[in-house]
Amino acid sequence: MIKSLKVSKSKYLGPLCVGIIAFPFLYEYTKEFYWTQRLKKLNMDEIISDRFTWLHHCMIVTIKQHKMVLESLDYSHLYTDYYKDKVYLPSEDTFFFVDILHNEFKNIFEKNPRLILELGSGSGYITTYLLKMFKSHENDTHSETNVSMPFCVCVDINKYAAESTNNMLKSNGVKSYCDSICMDMFSNINKVKFDMIIFNPPYVPGTAEDGNDVLDMAWNGGKDGSETIIRFIKTIDNYLDKEGCAYLLLEERNKVDEIVKNIRRTNHGIEAGSLIVINSTGSRT
């Protein structure tokens, strides 16, 4: 009986000693694991909180900058006799396009485009707005992203519009970031890929009999208002970088659904980059 008891005690003595020796190490490991997980959660909560605060700040700053830029834009030269009835004045579609770019600006800013093309720049209002938005973000000390100013090329078939764009850029302090050229769409652009292309095309349905002066070219889009738009879609692959994006404004009479189907069927604009089609209701496709 005594011998059996001694054997029983010795049987449990070994594991007990191992447990006593291992306990401090196990305790330290458990404590370290607990606090590691706890700190990870606290850090994640802090990161999420900081990210939310930063995004909220960005939204407020961007809205303020949008309003400040719009209020500061000077296009008084358009009301002189020289440009009267020769250049398409900033109108509802112009302001609508600018609102779209404002809504998209966070995505545009993060893409950090180096080279931007605007086709049919008209008065120069849209590119001037875009450059001033970049300028205001460049000067924003709270911005987390270091983005340098892009360089823009503005194109218009109307020589008065090309001159107006240059004047508007100059009067708003961003001329050094842009060149304005008088030519028809991509006609004189060779072997250049743009990070971003914007186009507010002539989209109003019309005919050759509707007039052929410089101002008519700004709105007359031919049959269904889509003749110039189709030309653009067929050639954009050659000029849009594979990581780039393009913004094209349409209106319902352009048969938006058919144009979008054509883009998807032929991969025009999608194979090269991202073609964002905006119709007059503000929806994207």
TrEMBL record:
Family the UniProt entry places it in: Belongs to the eukaryotic/archaeal PrmC-related family.
Instruction: Please list the GO biological process terms of this entry.
Output: methylation
The protein's UniProt keywords, in alphabetical order, are:
Membrane, Methyltransferase, S-adenosyl-L-methionine, Transferase, Transmembrane, Transmembrane helix
What SUPFAM superfamilies does this protein's entry cite? Answer: S-adenosyl-L-methionine-dependent methyltransferases
Methyltransferase small domain segment(s)? 112-210
Q: Which InterPro entries match?
A: DNA_methylase_N6_adenine_CS, Euk-Arch_PrmC-MTase, PrmC-related, SAM-dependent_MTases_sf, Small_mtfrase_dom
Q: Which PROSITE patterns match?
A: N6_MTASE
Q: Which NCBIfam families match?
A: hemK_rel_arch (TIGR00537)
Specify the superkingdom.
Eukaryota
Which Pfam families does this chain map to? Answer: MTS
Return the GO cellular component terms, semicolon-separated. eRF1 methyltransferase complex
Coiled coil: which residue ranges?
A: none
Extract one GO molecular function annotation from the record.
Answer: S-adenosylmethionine-dependent methyltransferase activity
Can you say what this protein is called? Answer: Methyltransferase small domain-containing protein
Entry's transmembrane regions: 12-30
